[in-house]
């Protein structure tokens, strides 16, 4: 069995000259990631960098997901670069050197325009309460705004979406700037590796080549994922969620079984890939910005768009190896 477990590398944050309120589509489209392809330590940035936005979109398009596209260089970008290197047979060090930049870059705009439709304003809820008992009383755990819906559709952080569109009301008929991810990857996944240490999920095809790489939250210190070999039982789209404090965890003051409705803000997001280990699965999340930054309750958590892509490529019987802290 191949093992593409990636060493968790130290990284530096790239500097930027662009303020969040000044970042524009033209900046992202006219920059080149070769400008930041260096190993020289640079200043830590507190504002999104157009070149990092471009890098994140390119990695997303190449099949090595950086998670949320937000314009900040962080560990998930570092891991996505390493994933891209593994996919392309390059030395895996997680650094954006000139060779990696040249292989990634495309001479085309990566921020485009999108006209908001009436349908985009449908199925919006006022808010999502934190308390599961209150969530259980709702009909649907949908998006709380058109901006939130669009940010997820285009794999963006909502703050970056707003920064690219200052003053936008996100109303039907409005034209806004969004990132341009490609269509979801296609193929047949033969097996999956979930690496606890690096916080990554690798999907392999029938030729044992890497189809896709995703950043993931894989359990936590208190609730580790069950290491070993498991199988996919099936896939549930827009799953409901049954909260059982005796089986799952204690949420607030809720001590009774609760049935939470489906929706992108459901605790397990838009997809549940059921595993042969009872109560465990690979699933989405209502908070994609926290992927591999906050622990899960033992399951493997991906951004909704990543788990949706993965789910379309798996069938019952696919092997899932959860590899512990190698």
Instruction: List the strand order in the largest sheet.
Output: 5-4-3-13-7-10-11-12-6
What's the mean pLDDT score? 89
Q: What best-fitting shape do the alpha-carbon axes yield?
A: globular
SS elements, strand count: 13
> Gap between N and C termini, in Å?
15 Å
Name the poorly predicted regions: 5-20
What structural class is derived from the secondary structure elements? alpha+beta
Estimate the helix proportion, in percent: 10-25%
Query: What is the CA-atom radius of gyration, in angstroms?
Result: 20 Å
SSE succession: HHHHEHHHEEEEEEEEEEEHE
Strand content is: 15-25%
**Biggest sheet details:** 9 strands, mixed
Please count the helical segments. 8
Textual characterization of the structure:
It is a single chain. The protein has 326 residues and is of the alpha+beta class. It is 21% helix and 18% strand. It is built from eight helices and 13 strands. It has a nine-stranded mixed beta sheet with strand order 5-4-3-13-7-10-11-12-6, sandwiched between helices. A two-stranded antiparallel ribbon has the order 1-2. Helix 2 (50-62) crosses helix 3 (75-87). The longest helix has 13 residues, at 50-62. The radius of gyration is 20 Å and the shape is globular. Residues 5-20 have low confidence and may be disordered.
SSE topology:
Elements: H1 25-30, H2 50-62, H3 75-87, H4 98-104, E1 111-115, H5 132-136, H6 146-153, H7 158-164, E2 175-179, E3 191-195, E4 200-204, E5 210-215, E6 217-218, E7 228-237, E8 241-243, E9 258-260, E10 271-275, E11 281-283, E12 300-301, H8 304-311, E13 319-323
Parallel strand pairs: 3-13, 11-12
Antiparallel strand pairs: 1-2, 3-4, 4-5, 6-12, 7-10, 7-13, 8-9, 10-11
Helix pairs in contact: 2-3
């Amino acid at each position: 069995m191949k093992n593409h477990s990636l060493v968790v590398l130290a990284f530096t944050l790239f500097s930027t000259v662009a303020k969040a309120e000044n970042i524009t589509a033209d900046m992202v489209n006219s920059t080149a990631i070769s400008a930041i392809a260096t190993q020289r330590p640079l200043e830590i940035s507190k504002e999104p960098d157009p070149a990092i936005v471009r890098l994140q979109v390119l990695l997303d398009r190449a099949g090595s997901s950086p998670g949320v596209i937000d314009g900040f260089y962080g560990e998930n970008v570092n891991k996505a670069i390493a994933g891209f290197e593994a996919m392309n047979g390059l030395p895996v060090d997680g650094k954006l050197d000139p060779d990696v930049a040249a292989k990634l870059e495309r001479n085309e705009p990566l921020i485009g325009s999108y006209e908001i439709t009436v349908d985009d304003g449908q199925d919006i809820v006022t808010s999502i309460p934190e308390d599961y008992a209150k969530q259980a009383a709702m009909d649907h755990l949908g998006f709380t705004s058109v901006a939130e819906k669009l940010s997820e559709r285009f794999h963006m952080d909502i703050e970056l979406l707003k920064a690219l569109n200052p003053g936008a009301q996100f109303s039907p008929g409005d034209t806004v700037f969004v990132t341009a991810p490609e269509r979801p990857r296609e193929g047949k996944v033969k097996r999956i590796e979930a690496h606890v240490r690096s916080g990554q999920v690798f999907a392999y095809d029938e030729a044992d080549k890497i189809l896709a790489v995703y950043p993931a939250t894989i359990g936590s210190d208190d609730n580790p994922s069950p290491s070993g070999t498991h199988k996919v039982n099936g896939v549930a789209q827009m799953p409901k969620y049954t909260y059982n404090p005796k089986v799952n965890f204690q949420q607030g003051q809720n001590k009774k079984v609760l049935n939470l409705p489906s929706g992108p803000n459901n605790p397990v997001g838009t997809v549940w890939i059921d595993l042969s280990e009872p109560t465990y699965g690979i699933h989405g999340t209502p908070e994609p910005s926290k992927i591999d930054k906050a622990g899960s309750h033992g399951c493997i958590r991906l951004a909704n768009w990543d788990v949706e892509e993965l789910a379309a490529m798996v069938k019952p019987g696919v092997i899932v190896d959860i590899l512990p802290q190698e």
